[in-house]
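Hey Z.,

So I finally got round to the zinc ion thing we talked about over coffee. Here's the setup:
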Amino acid sequence: MSAATERYARQAALPEFAHSHERFARTRVGVIGVGGLGALCSYLLAGAGIGELRLSDNDEVSLSNLHRQVLYDLSMLGQTKTACAKQRIAALDPAIQVNTYGALTDAASFANFAKGLNMVLLLTDTQSSRLTLSDWCLAHRLPTLIACVSGYSGMLALFNYAAPQFIAQHGCYRCLCADNPEPAVQGILGPTAAQLSAATAQLALQFLNGTLADKLQGCLTLYDFSTQSTRRFKLKRAAGCGGCREYAD
Ligand SMILES: [Zn+2]
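And the result:
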């Protein structure tokens, strides 16, 4: 058995994922924010064999991160999270190409980051940044997975901005929460962040593999990790949303 065959043997034993690692090796995913959600999520995508990961964050590892950002440890304090995540992924599988970026603060830096990507995972920790970055993902027609977590609650939604039909029906992230106030920062348990990271990575892999169940297309899932319960809603385009109007047909 070759090393590649052995590495992915258990993943390939799932009939839907039998040849996934060959497809994933040619797949490029951008992860914006490699903190509580993005760090573990990136590691899981690397484990699945995603060929290229582009990691964007300008934050450094601090002591208060370590209870939930399990990629990082005491030896990494003060170092940039993207460099530390790259180091951890290289130790897992040096064949995975990891490119690191600072914060994407303008459309030009985003365009450089986004070129040729198959998908973006938008995992920053403020709603204002998610709104701006989602607009840019939409302009570049990139399938975009958005997740956020606060206290015991998490949200996960896939916006397939590559499909005009999707946008016409389900809209954009701005349709969903443009009018909501910025949520207050709350405490969080490590497992809460880890569970939503894993759910995000799972959804991304199923989408990239072309095997995402129809009932999950165009859906928003809300998690309450204090009761291990989930609620699912269909996303619906907001008629007055200026964010996605020009992309909806
Ligand atoms: Zn919209």
